[in-house]
Design goal:
Number of helices: 10
CATH superfamily of the largest domain: Type I PLP-dependent aspartate aminotransferase-like (Major domain)
CATH topology of the largest domain: Aspartate Aminotransferase, domain 2
Radius of gyration: 21 Å
Shape: globular
Largest sheet: 7 strands, mixed
Distance between the termini: 37 Å
Order of helices and strands: EHHEHEHEEEEEEEHHHHEEHEEH
Strand content: 15-25%
Number of strands: 14
CATH class of the largest domain: Alpha Beta
Number of domains: 2
CATH architecture of the largest domain: 3-Layer(aba) Sandwich
Length: 368
């Protein structure tokens, strides 16, 4: 198959076609360089321009002030689950509050508990992680050195509509599946991190935005590749970085700036796409059911079920026949899920909406 389909995968995920096309044009030889980006040295002037350009774009889009460092690391978000408490909880006697709103924040809290004191400020297990907490439901330990959250849980399809109130305690946030999808109040965060393979680029690079005064707290006895301060002092070049992945982050952020200009416009576009699907689901009389409660529903990942497993299997098979791919839910929960990140075009969401309505009309009388 050479014709592109609509890819609703949760990650690695759809990338902007203009970014892919530019990478394709330049794959054999970067303009003015004569070598592929896959071949250039990470200490070359060409790569220095790439990584500085990627950082500059991120600073522009997220309005990152100069007292924050931007790092391009490896190991994905799961490495950050351990790195954060290694650097700031281990052997300190301090504790942190964790908001457990789904699979990824649950894993992060468990990882942190092996390094230091963790206080669970809220856990959504009682309602099967179908919502995020209101501020008055949070029980944040007042002596917490940070409050941890995952701002968008991809499996359950729940998303914080805004930053939770923490009484001035800095947030540490896994924003892997939503970074660059909407504006953030960067001053609320001590650390904001995201693996790239949702909205930023391909798998292989993780962006970490960290307040510089946090770097002063990093202990000296950590391995250098796990120490934020050393990574920042070497400008993400402590070892060979994932050169091609950083290059793609540069191209993707170039596209965001050209296409939207700022994250408010991108937020409005993403909310419009999500509303199209949520409204279609609501119009089908319970044939489709959304896992997430109203007020907590994600604009990035729409997790839904059909009346039974047999109908879901049919839905997934028929969707592929019309070019709608990777609509399976996470292996841990089943069901269906549409991931509609920044690069998913409006036409793709319309195509999915139309298919869902047609499938409902054709199958609504065949299920009890």
């Amino acid at each position: 198959m050479t014709q592109r389909v609509y890819n609703f995968a949760p990650g690695p995920a759809v990338l902007p076609e203009p970014a892919l096309e530019e990478a394709q044009r330049n794959l054999m030889a970067l303009p003015g360089v004569g070598m592929s980006v896959l071949e250039i040295s990470h200490r070359s002037a060409a790569f220095s321009e790439i990584i500085q350009g990627a950082e500059r774009n991120l600073r522009t889009l997220l309005q990152i002030p100069e007292d924050y460092a931007v790092l391009f690391l490896q190991g994905g978000a799961k490495l950050q689950f351990g790195m954060v408490p290694m650097n700031f909880l281990r052997n300190t006697g301090a504790r942190a509050s964790y908001i457990v709103s789904g699979t990824w924040s649950k894993q992060a809290a468990a990882e942190a508990a092996g390094q230091g004191q963790v206080h669970v400020a809220w856990d959504g297990k009682a309602t099967n992680y179908d919502r995020v907490p209101a501020d008055d439901q949070l029980n944040i330990a007042p002596d917490s050195i940070y409050v941890y959250l995952c701002s968008n849980e991809t499996i359950a399809g729940v998303q914080f509509p805004r930053e939770p109130e923490t009484n001035g305690i800095p947030l540490v946030c896994d924003a892997s599946s939503e970074l660059l999808s909407r504006p953030v109040d960067i001053r609320r965060y001590g650390i904001l991190f995201a693996c790239a393979q949702k909205n930023l680029g391909p798998a292989g690079v993780t962006v970490v935005i960290i307040r510089k005064d946090f770097l002063d707290r990093c202990p000296n006895d950590l391995p250098m590749m796990l120490n934020y301060r050393q990574l920042a002092e070497h400008n993400s070049l402590l070892n060979t970085p994932p050169v091609f992945a950083v290059y793609m982050v540069k191209l993707v952020t170039d596209w965001v700036l050209r296409e939207f200009g700022d994250l408010q416009k991108l937020k409005e576009f993403n909310e419009k796409k999500a509303a199209l699907l949520y409204d279609a689901i609501a119009s089908c009389g319970g044939f489709y059911t959304v896992h997430a409660a109203p007020g907590s529903r994600s604009a990035m990942n729409i997790a839904f079920r059909l009346p039974n497993a047999e109908t879901e299997k049919k839905f997934l098979a028929e969707s592929r026949k019309v070019g709608l791919y990777n609509l399976e839910g996470h292996r841990s929960v089943g069901g269906c899920r549409a991931s509609i990140y920044n690069a998913m075009p409006w036409e793709g969401v319309v195509a999915l909406r139309d298919f869902m309505l047609q499938f409902y009309q054709a199958n609504r009388d065949q299920v009890g």
